[in-house]
Amino acid sequence: MSASKSSGKSHQRPVIINRSDYKKIPLDIRELGDDVREIAENVYSGDILSIDWHGSIPRGDFVFGESDADITIFIGHNFESGHREKREKLLRDILPKWQNRGVCKLDVIAVPKPEFHKDARRTGSSSRNQIAYSYQAFLA
Q1: CA 45: distance to chain centroid?
Q2: Verdict on whether the full-model pTM lies above 0.85
């Protein structure tokens, strides 16, 4: 929270505002979460801490043919050799299904637990890995 002062009073404003909600995801797009979870379990041997879906789709700003799916997989161990190639191949396999439903791109990344705050410790600033992702789904 950050404080701002006006007329001698301190007002609290949220630094991060979550505008996402599972209910805002179009019904025919929600199944994408299941597909990504299956891929994550296959590639990362079930050591999944969370899968976070963020961006325009869970904010309710989905635009058919223009919106991409922004998803981050947090895993509990370091990456195994070949994980990226395997994940990308499996995502390419399901991409046509989602393009037919209006999702233009599957932007799915993975972050291992040892890397969560690595950049902040090194530089003292925020990194992509530290952003408070707006919607945690699938494993709750």
Answers
A1: 19
A2: no
